[in-house]
Amino acid sequence: MDSEIIKIVERVKSGVSSARAEVEKAIAAAKEKDNLHALLELFENEALARADEIDARIKDGEDVGRLAGVPYVAKDNFLTTVGHTTAAAKILENFESPLDATAIERLDAEGAILIGKANLDAFAHGGSTENSAFGPTKNVVDPERVAGGSSGGSAAIVAAGVVPFALGSDTGGSIRQPASFNGAVGYKPTYGMISRYGVLAMASSTDVVGPLTRTVADAELLSEILAGPDGKDSTVHDDYFISQTTDKPLKIGLIREFIGDGVDEQVVAKTKEFVDRLKAAGHTVEDVDLPMAKYSLAIYYIVVPAEVSSNLARYDGVRYGLRSETAKSLDDVYGQSRDQGFMPENKRRIMIGSYVLSSGYFDAYYLQAQKARTLLIQEFDKLFDEYDFLIGPTAPTPAFKLGENTADPIKMYLADAMTVPSSLAGLPALSLPNGVNDQGLPIGVQIIGRQKDDARLLSFAKTMEVHS
Predict the structure, then answer these.
(1) Active site includes 75?
(2) What is the tens place of the pLDDT at every residue in 78-124?
(3) Which of 70, 97, 247, 283 is such that its CA lies 20 to 30 A from the CA of 456?
(4) Is 132 known to be catalytic?
C-alpha cells in the first residue's frame, strides 16, 4: 500500500493543497470523531498557526522537510511544550512541560504538525485504555468495545482516518495490541532504536517509542526520521535503520504456543490464512516451539512492576503535579497525593514492584524472573539462527467489551500474552491488519524479527500487506 504521508506532502508542496487545509481537515475529522474519546486535548489554534508558518516557508521556496504539513497526534505520555502532558493521570492533570520529547522535535524539524494528545491508560499501565483517569477510548469499529491499550487513543484516531499517523509507546504490547483491535499498523522497534528522551518512563528495560499508521510504508518513513543517536538518551543505538527491499523467499516460524489453548478460533483461522498467503508468495513456513513463552507474562509482571515502582517514586506531591489539599504533614503529602493522583492499576503495580524488590524477596522473585528472561532471550536467539521471522496472532482475541475484564486483572493481562515475549527480548515486532471476524472486528497478525533487523522486517511486512 502506498504511503499516505507522502501523498499529503506532495499535495502541500505542489500547491494542490496547503498545510492549513490539511490541518483544518484533520481538526474537523477529530471533532466529528469526538465520540471515540481518543483525544485528551486538541491544539486547534496552535496547529493552524504552525500550518501557516509551513505554508509561508514553502511560498518562500524553503525546503520544509519530509513531513511538510502532515498533521499527527502524540500519546499523552510524550512531553510537549504545547498544551498539557497528563499521562492520563490525575497526578499530572495540569502539568505543562518545559520541553519537547526528542521524537516530537524530530517530527517538528521535518515539518509535521501536532494537532492533539491521545488518551491512554494512566502512565501506560493497561491494555484497554479503561485505566485513563479521564474515561476510556472506544473502539473505532464497535463503540461498545475497548480500543485496546495502552496506546488506545493513538490507534483509534489513526484507524478513524483523522490523521495518517500517531506516536505511541510500547512496553509489553501497547502499540501492537490496540493496532490489532482497531485495524491499524502498529510497529514496535528494536529496544534502543528511537530515543525515549521526554517520554514518561514506565519500565526502563522494555519501553520503546514507535508509530501507529495505516500503511507499513508510513511506519518505514517515520522510522527513517525517528531512529538514531540522541545525546540525551544513552540507551539509543547508532543509526542502523536504512530502508531496504526484500523480495527473496524467506524461512518463517509460526510460534505454536501462540495458537494454542485460550486463543479465539477465528483468530487462529485468520492466522492460518496468513500462513497460506505466505506460502503462496513463495516463503517457507514451519511450526516452531517457544517453550518459555508460557512464562512470559509471569516474568513481565515481576520485572515491569519493579521498574514501575521505581519510576513512579518521583511523583510525590512535592516536586510537581498534584498535591493533596487535605495533607497536614509531610507524610500526608506523600501518601495522600499519591493516593488521590494514581489510578488503582498504578497502585497495584507499585505495590507488586515494591514487594518483589523488598529485602528477602528480591532473590526469590526479581532475580529469578531476570534469569527466566535470559532463557526466553536464548530461545529467541536459537530460533533466529534458523528462521528469518517469527509470526503469530497479535492478541488472543479481537477487542473485548468495555468493562468485560476490569474486575479481573489476570484476564486483562492475558490480552498481552503474545506481545510481551518480544518486549522482554527487545525484539522488533509489527502488528499487521489481518482481516476481520464474523462480527467485523479487526484481527492482527504479528511479525517478529531479530534485533536491529527492523528495516528488513518492515520491508517484508510491506510485501504481505499487499497480499492481505
Answers:
(1) yes
(2) 999 999 999 999 999 999 999 999 999 999 999 999 999 999 999 99
(3) 70
(4) no
